C-alpha cells in the first residue's frame, strides 16, 4: 500500500476508530496520494468525493465532509472556514512560502483558522511525514516476511 495514504489511514483510524459511513473528501488526484487515498477510504466504507483545484464550489463540498484529506500541493488553498465543525483534517501538502522575509513550510490548509473548527488536524510540518516513514517500515517488514516465505504479519 502506498506509504503516505497508508499513514493517513492509520491516523484516521487512531482518531475516529470505525470510518464506515463517514463522508470524506480527498482534494488532489495524484497517483501517489489522492487516488490511493480515495481507494483506501472506499475500502473503509466511507462515501468519498475526489476533488481538485478546478472543482466547482469546492468550499461547499469540503463543508459537508467528516474527513478532509488535502493533497493538492497549493499553499493554504483550503480556507479554515470551509471546514465542517468537528471534521478530521489530514493535510498532506507541503509548500514553502516567504513571510516577513523568512521562508516557512505550510500545508494546503490554513492551519490556524482550520484548527479552530476541526475536531482534529495534522500540522505541517510534523504531521503526515512521520507516518509516511512509519508506513515505509511497515511495508518493508511485510516484504521481508513474504520474501522469506513467511506469512505477512498483521501489524495494524
Give the topology:
Blueprint: H1 3-16, E1 23-27, H2 34-43, E2 47-51, H3 58-63, E3 67-70, E4 88-91, E5 95-99, E6 102-106, H4 111-117, E7 120-121, H5 128-147
Parallel strand pairs: 1-2, 1-3, 3-4, 4-7
Antiparallel strand pairs: 5-6
Helix pairs in contact: 1-2, 1-5
Largest sheet: 5 strands, parallel
Overall geometry: globular
Based on helices, strands and strand pairing, what is the structural class? alpha/beta
Encode the helix/strand succession as letters. HEHEHEEEEHEH
Query: How many individual helices?
Result: 5
What does this 3D model show about the protein?
There is one protein chain. With 156 residues, the chain is of the alpha/beta class. Helix content is 37%, strand content 19%. It contains 5 helices and 7 strands. It has helices spanning 3-16, 34-43, 58-63, 111-117, 128-147, and strands spanning 23-27, 47-51, 67-70, 88-91, 95-99, 102-106, 120-121. It has a 5-stranded parallel sheet, with helices on both faces. The chain has a two-stranded antiparallel sheet with strand order 5-6. Strand 1 (23-27), helix 2 (34-43) and strand 2 form a beta-alpha-beta unit. Helix 1 packs across helix 2 (34-43) and helix 1 (3-16) packs across helix 5 (128-147). The longest helix has 20 residues, at 128-147.
Amino acid at each position: 500500500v502506498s506509504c503516505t495514504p497508508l499513514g493517513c489511514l492509520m491516523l484516521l483510524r487512531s482518531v475516529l476508530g470505525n470510518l464506515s459511513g463517514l463522508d470524506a473528501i480527498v482534494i488532489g488526484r495524484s497517483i501517489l496520494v489522492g487516488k490511493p487515498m480515495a481507494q483506501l477510504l472506499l475500502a473503509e466504507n466511507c462515501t468519498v468525493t475526489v476533488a481538485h483545484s478546478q472543482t466547482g464550489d469546492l468550499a461547499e463540498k469540503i463543508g459537508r465532509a467528516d474527513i478532509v484529506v488535502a493533497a493538492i500541493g497549493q499553499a493554504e488553498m483550503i480556507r479554515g472556514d470551509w471546514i465542517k465543525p468537528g471534521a478530521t483534517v489530514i493535510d498532506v501538502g507541503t509548500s514553502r512560502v516567504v513571510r516577513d522575509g523568512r521562508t516557512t513550510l505550510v500545508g494546503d490548509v490554513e492551519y490556524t483558522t482550520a484548527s479552530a473548527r476541526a475536531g482534529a488536524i495534522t500540522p505541517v510540518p510534523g504531521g503526515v511525514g512521520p507516518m509516511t516513514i512509519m508506513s515505509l517500515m511497515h511495508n518493508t517488514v511485510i516484504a521481508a516476511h513474504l520474501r522469506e516465505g513467511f506469512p505477512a504479519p498483521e501489524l495494524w
